[in-house]
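Below is a filled-in request sheet from our internal design queue. Each sheet records the structural input a requester submitted and the sequence that came back. We keep these sheets so that new team members can see what a complete request looks like end to end.

REQUESTER: design group, bay 2
PRIORITY: normal
MODE: inverse folding
CHAIN LENGTH: 116
BACKBONE (tokenized):
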């Protein structure tokens, strides 16, 4: 099992998450918590190991907006959409580096086990 959870310590990623939560009216998917409990208690896997690492997704402005628009519960038209795009443009301008990129930071959690 693999999860990519947005890093809650990175300033850009925190602000991106805030914008998404606000635009989605706190959609339940924004607060879901993944649990490995089902994997740990199933009789079908043994020797389960967890590995965690950080992943940084490099995005230009087009990539940032495209990444956000891949989320089905965000507005895709109307004034709410226009406000969302304005918010992402401001976010990009505030955090972009000298190469014109921002970085979404994830905490990736990988759980591996052997099938019995």
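RETURNED SEQUENCE:
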């Amino acid at each position: 099992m693999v999860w990519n959870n947005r890093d809650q310590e990175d300033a850009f990623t925190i602000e991106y998450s805030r914008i998404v939560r606000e635009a989605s009216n706190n959609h339940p998917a924004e607060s879901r918590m993944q649990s490995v409990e089902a994997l740990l208690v199933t009789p079908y896997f043994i020797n389960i190991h967890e590995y965690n690492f950080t992943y940084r997704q490099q995005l230009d402005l087009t990539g940032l907006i495209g990444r956000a628009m891949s989320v089905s519960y965000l507005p895709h038209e109307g004034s709410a959409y226009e406000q969302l795009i304005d918010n992402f443009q401001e976010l990009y301008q505030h955090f972009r580096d000298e190469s014109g990129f921002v970085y979404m930071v994830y905490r990736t959690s990988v759980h591996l086990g052997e099938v019995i």
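SHEET NOTES:
- The CA atoms of residues 96 and 102 lie 5 Å apart.
- The chain is about 40% helix and 30% strand.
FILED BY: M.R.
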